[in-house]
Task: inverse folding
């Protein structure tokens, strides 16, 4: 298969006079507006003008969006002057963010106005927010440039009214390609692009725009499809980038409860006070609300200039925040991942990240939101909230400065997405089984789909599958064959298909209204815990629950009162493999230096190498010393197992705790721990309570399950871990939970039925029954197969866990009896307390664990430990 080829490297220089190749009207506008093209634009433009597909990778602020559009605008201007400008769509711009399409629409008016072509070249916006009236107008008079989202493009493809307009597409721009590469939305889009290619007489030029990502050949392949060439342009505009690490920790790595949170908020408040505009990134939506609330209370004079922004807030609320940020009316916006991508947010002085974003690509993306212009410096501050977090932050900061990128992993052949698109092909008509296979395999994520897999999905779409076809063909049948061509059996199927396009499945969410204004959504499970009169935070506002109805709740303002913060069912971000490896390397070097150097020498190394304060370096050093007093420092060459029996009065008897320091990231530890827990059950019987974090896992066992070092080694042998994983998941809710989403995406249980309000309870009940039937009677059903695959490869990271098992026995193994929970296990044990729904707060737990350590081991080392 031909590999996408790179036509420009870091040291590449643009060919002379590229702008001169543009139509004079466009060239004059560029000269008047910018003076000259950016490097990204000059390197990309020749390929587009020559009709070659191209992937442009460059940092935020390098002018890459205009780089994608210049060749298209040139083509349209020349067509207009030649009198050949058609009435169909010439170019489609696709963004994963609706807000980005709004920005692009506004930004494209500038060159059109500059060239006097606003009445000639039409720009149209089609997203889920587009009104029915505007949709009808677009269909009657299609724009020359259509701005849309992956889902909206998929809706247009099978509609007869759009067929003629789409057949004339010559260019496709996919923005923020890196954000689509590893998920179902990206896989979904690649199939849409291949279906679009079937419609056009000339294969459209595909233009991919991506922030800094790796490996670029893989992204290029995803963009253009299997076996096609794609030029790769890296415009590594070396923007100045300042990355700092801030932590409230001083010499004591285990401060009293409340100290860290209080100091963190004080430090962030000072950053907000001394800057004009700050974005504060949290890793979870509940943290976003908590930080917003505390920051408003800490800065009462600026409270009306501090807002929250995340995906559960209403679109109007988000747009208002974005506009105020862009106009310089806000001093701080606290968000989760919602402002990571290229929405135009104006000038931002500084980006604060509370804890690391668990990966270098994401850190670069977030930091790039500050200094949002070509020549401005980007300034990012990583805020560490505990000593383990501090070690992760300093490694992340160093990798970010060096631009050591995480590798993208494409999501391979999701069968529910395939099912959805096969119904779309049936609606379009004229597609045989072989043509469908050819179309599907042309999309990079589906290039390895076998004929057997395709046939299984087609059989499911015909009648629901072997276990359902005899009695329920009419209920589940989505396609029929007529003279060898796929088609749909009824208009009802067409309506249901159009109402259920996409991969974002329905969760149990409750809309929250303050007066007539919809603030956003919280989870159904959270709302069920509240009673009338309870206070909580949403959109950074404290509100009081007034009443609840079907999928909605009414609240009133309760500013100044103490709230309960909502918790969304969002998983913690897992550490990427690259960052996990570097943290393991850091621990390895730290252990080696502590063993042979003085405390002062190690402290100097930390300060100079990682650009941190002396007090933070001393905190890390003290943490290492304390660990060595009872155990070892886990490294990349070891598998450290700590055995702990809690003999305190009142502790639960007959339990033994085993801490496994595996250092492979949260998702991989989740998979590995399930395999080992299952093997424990097979070997000695009984269940194990499992707790995980990024750096290891904890098994809480009964004393009859107690094992020695050699016995543990046997359980870590690389003997068919995939089969053990499948067996471990049989009684788990994880596969069933994934099946709900797969059944919706795969059109087995439609999210929406036109004219009907499908309640969450109905969806759950339907998927529960189907899951049981398929598990018992058709375990190879493609929707069930996809559910297991998602559970093990998306939610869990089975491949990385299997990689660890392949090399585990070659590591140096240590089983250490510890008299107390060791300092490197404090965070893991605190997670067990939190996940066990005990009343103790994790911060309180760590403080208690330290007190127990002091009591049994004798307090902190003096720093002279060798």
Result:
């Amino acid at each position: 298969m031909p590999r996408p080829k790179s036509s420009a490297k870091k040291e590449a220089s643009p060919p002379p006079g590229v702008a001169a190749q543009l139509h004079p009207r466009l060239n004059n506008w560029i000269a008047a507006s910018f003076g000259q093209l950016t490097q990204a634009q000059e390197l990309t433009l020749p390929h587009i003008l020559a009709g070659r597909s191209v992937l442009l990778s460059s940092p935020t602020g390098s002018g890459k969006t205009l780089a994608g559009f210049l060749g298209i605008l040139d083509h349209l201007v020349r067509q207009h002057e030649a009198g050949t400008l058609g009435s169909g769509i010439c170019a489609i711009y696709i963004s994963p963010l609706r807000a980005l399409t709004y920005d692009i629409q506004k930004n494209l008016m500038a060159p059109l106005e500059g060239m006097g072509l606003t009445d000639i070249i039409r720009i149209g916006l089609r997203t889920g927010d587009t009104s029915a009236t505007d949709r009808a107008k677009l269909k009657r008079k299609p724009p020359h440039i259509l701005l849309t989202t992956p889902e909206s493009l998929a809706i247009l493809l099978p509609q007869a009214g759009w067929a003629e307009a789409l057949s004339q597409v010559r260019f496709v721009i996919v923005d923020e390609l890196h954000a689509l590469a590893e998920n179902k939305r990206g896989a979904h889009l690649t199939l849409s692009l291949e279906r679009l290619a079937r419609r056009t007489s000339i294969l459209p030029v595909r233009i991919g725009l991506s922030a800094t990502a790796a490996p670029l050949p893989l992204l290029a392949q995803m963009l253009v499809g299997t076996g096609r060439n794609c030029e790769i342009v890296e415009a590594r505009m070396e923007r100045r980038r300042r990355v700092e690490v801030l932590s409230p920790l001083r010499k004591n790595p285990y401060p009293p409860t409340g100290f860290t949170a209080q100091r963190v908020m004080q430090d962030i408040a000072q950053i907000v006070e001394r800057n004009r505009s700050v974005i504060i990134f949290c890793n979870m939506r509940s943290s976003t609300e908590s930080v917003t609330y505390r920051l408003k209370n800490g800065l009462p004079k600026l409270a009306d200039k501090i807002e929250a922004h995340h995906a559960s807030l209403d679109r109007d609320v988000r747009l208002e925040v974005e506009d105020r940020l862009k106009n310089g009316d806000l001093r701080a916006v606290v968000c989760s991942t919602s402002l990571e991508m290229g929405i135009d947010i104006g000038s931002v002085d500084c980006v604060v990240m509370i804890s690391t974003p668990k990966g270098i690509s994401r850190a670069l993306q977030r930091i790039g939101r500050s200094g949002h212009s070509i020549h401005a410096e980007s300034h990012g501050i990583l805020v560490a909230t505990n000593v383990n977090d501090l070690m992760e932050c300093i490694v992340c900061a160093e990798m970010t400065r060096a631009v050591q990128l995480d590798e993208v992993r494409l999501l391979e052949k999701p069968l529910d997405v395939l099912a959805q698109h096969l119904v779309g092909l049936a609606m379009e008509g004229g597609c045989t089984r072989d043509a469908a296979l050819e179309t599907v395999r042309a999309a990079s994520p589906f290039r390895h789909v076998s004929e057997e897999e395709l046939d299984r999905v087609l059989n499911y779409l015909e009648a629901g599958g072997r276990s359902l076809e005899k009695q329920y063909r009419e209920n589940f049948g989505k396609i029929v064959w007529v003279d060898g061509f796929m088609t749909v059996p009824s208009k009802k199927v067409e309506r249901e298909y159009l109402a259920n396009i996409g991969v974002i499945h329905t969760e149990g969410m409750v809309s929250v209204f303050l007066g007539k204004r919809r603030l956003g959504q919280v989870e159904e499970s959270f709302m069920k815990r509240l009673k009338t009169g309870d206070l909580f935070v949403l959109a950074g506002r404290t509100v009081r629950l007034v009443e609840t109805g079907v999928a909605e709740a009414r609240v009133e303002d309760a500013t100044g009162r103490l709230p309960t913060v909502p918790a969304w069912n969002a998983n913690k971000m897992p550490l990427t493999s690259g960052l996990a490896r570097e943290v393991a390397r850091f621990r390895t070097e730290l252990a080696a230096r502590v063993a042979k150097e003085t405390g002062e020498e190690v402290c100097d190394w930390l300060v100079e190498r990682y650009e941190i304060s002396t007090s933070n370096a001393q905190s890390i050093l003290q943490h290492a010393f304390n660990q060595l007093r009872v155990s070892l420092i886990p490294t990349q060459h070891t598998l450290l197992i700590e055995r702990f029996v809690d003999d305190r009065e009142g502790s639960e008897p007959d339990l033994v705790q085993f801490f496994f320091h595996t250092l492979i990231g949260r998702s991989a530890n989740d998979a590995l721990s399930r395999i080992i827990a299952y093997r424990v059950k097979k070997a000695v019987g009984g269940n194990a309570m499992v707790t995980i974090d990024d750096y290891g896992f904890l098994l809480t066992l009964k004393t009859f399950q107690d094992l020695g070092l050699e016995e543990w080694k046997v359980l870590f042998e690389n003997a068919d871990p995939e089969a053990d994983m499948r067996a471990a998941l049989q009684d788990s809710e994880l596969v069933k939970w994934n099946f709900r989403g797969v059944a919706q995406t795969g059109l087995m249980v439609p999210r929406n039925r036109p004219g009907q309000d499908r309640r969450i309870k109905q969806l759950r009940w339907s998927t529960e029954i189907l899951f049981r039937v398929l598990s018992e009677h058709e375990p190879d059903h493609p929707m069930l197969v996809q559910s297991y695959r998602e559970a093990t490869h998306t939610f869990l990271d089975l491949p990385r866990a299997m990689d660890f098992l392949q090399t585990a026995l070659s590591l140096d193994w240590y089983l250490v009896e510890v008299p107390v929970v060791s300092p490197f296990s404090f965070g893991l044990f605190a997670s067990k307390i939190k996940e066990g729904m005990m009343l103790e707060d994790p911060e309180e737990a760590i403080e208690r664990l330290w007190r127990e350590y002091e009591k049994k081991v004798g307090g902190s080392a003096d720093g002279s430990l060798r």
